[in-house]
Amino acid sequence: MSKRLFDIGASALGLILLAPLLLLATLWIKLDSPGPALFRQTRVGRFGQPFTIHKFRTMRVEPGAAITVGADPRITRSGALLRATKLDELPQLWDVLRGAMSLVGPRPELPRYVELYPTELRNQVLAVRPGITDPASLAFSHEAELLAAAKDPEREYREVILPAKLKLSAGYAARASLATDLKLILQTLSRVLHG
């Protein structure tokens, strides 16, 4: 079975089985704070093509930094739980189904961060579809806390965290296989279920 066929089958099944949970999350977000239930943002996808990523909105609709640092005051009550359980990522199953993403692949970045990628690594990472999870996502699952401890969170992300994530993502892209994907999916589910 090809990676794309697996993505289509798994994302479609996930959207069907999780439909009640997706509906409940949508209603809770709408009741918790004004604004849309979904957060949409432009990210860089395969071959450098921009696409719109979908997540459940976890913050109040107001201006702020692009990165989330620790207990960001913009995070809503519903958003805190959605982030803690990673349920805010579930709408990306739609992005997988429509072909913009994969279940497993390098996490898609904002265009301004992709501009910082070294050319060789950029080409390698962007040669595959971005994913909901990957080795870098697991290694930096507490990224917000790491940034909260930094004197300059933006600089910490650009100079320390981003290069480390990029190397992990490039390593995945070089050795990607369905077996690797299944292993990473199981590791991600275990991490979500056990905290």
Written overview of the protein:
This protein is mainly alpha-helical and 195 residues long. It has one domain. 54% of the residues lie in helices and 10% in strands. It has ten helices and four strands. Strands 1-2 form a two-stranded antiparallel ribbon. Strands 3-4 form a two-stranded parallel sheet. Strand 1 and strand 2 form a beta hairpin. The longest helix is centred in the last third of the chain and has 23 residues. The two termini are 31 Å apart. The mean pLDDT is 92. Belongs to the bacterial sugar transferase family. InterPro entries: Bact_transf (IPR003362).
- The N- and C-terminal alpha carbons lie at a distance of 31 Å
The number of helical segments is 10
Please describe the biggest sheet, giving its number of strands, its sense, and whether it closes into a barrel. Answer: 2 strands, antiparallel
What is the averaged pLDDT score?
92
Determine the strand fraction and express it as a percent band: 5-15%
**Secondary-structure element series:** HHEEHHEHHEHHHH
Q: Using only CA atoms, what is the Rg?
A: 16 Å
Give the count of structural domains: 1
Number of strands: 4
Structural class, by secondary structure, is: mainly alpha
GO molecular function, one term: phosphotransferase activity, for other substituted phosphate groups
Family: Belongs to the bacterial sugar transferase family.
Domain Bacterial sugar transferase: 3-193
Pfam family, one: Bac_transf
